[in-house]
Amino acid sequence: MKKIKSLVTVMTLGAVLVLSGCGSQSTPAATAVDPAKNEPAKTEPAKTETAQGKYKDGVYYAEAPMYGKDGWKYTASLTVDKGNIVAADWNGLNVKGGKDKDTFSKDGEYGMKEKGKAQAEWHEQAQKAEEYLVKTQDPTKVTYKDDAGHTDDIAGASIKVKDFFGLAKTALDNGPIAKGSYKDGVYYAADEAFTKGWKYMTSIVVKNGTIASVDWNGIPEDATKANKDFQSTNGEYKLAPGNQGEWAVQAQKAEAHLLKTQDPTKITLKDDAGHSDDIAGVSVTVGEFFKLAQKALEGAK
Alpha-carbon distance 219 to 230, whole Å? Predict the structure, then answer.
């Protein structure tokens, strides 16, 4: 009997030791298996919601008041979603139409690296400025090291960026553009020939279906001279006494009328020359401008 009891005790003790040994080993965590591939399923990372920003959702736009002496005019377009700037575009329009500055640079026609020995082409540096704005969410959070508008805040951008951030701030201050019925894009029309040394043009930018900007200008037959708006603003082109302001001032009022009406046909001309009483402070002929605007917008309907 003692032998039997001892045997039972030994067997019991052995079982306890085996169970104890098993309990000391760490149990591996269960791994989910994709039955279709018979391999561990991939775990998707948890999605984090973007914090609500401070801006009103929508499309924003602003552009320089006129084309420069070199024929370019800068623009800034912003898209805001959930209060945050999610996209920014810095570009340039040419008084003669054709490619925008971004495309002109991408196609190798601007040639900053070849002609100016720049560290990168214009569109590449412009993109870095755009990315900086999306990151900071504030067009005033940039430090300029000179009056021209260069900065050391953006790695890889040696061009002047002041115009872009200034236009971005203007766009945000103006608020989002209301939804309209036109197709977004840049629309351009110009006279086929020069008349008295000028060929008139109209450039219209549509954003969010709304006419966001209008430019009425004159291209000089003398290619060495600046556009009519530039010459008028700088006192190089003057109207005869008796007019209600210089040409650039009156042209701006005609542009504002189209921006307000959103329709180039909503103008009444009182004579064949193209004068109108619909726009206060404008004594120059405007018929040609609204005719060109109609032509330009044919592709936007």
Answer: 10
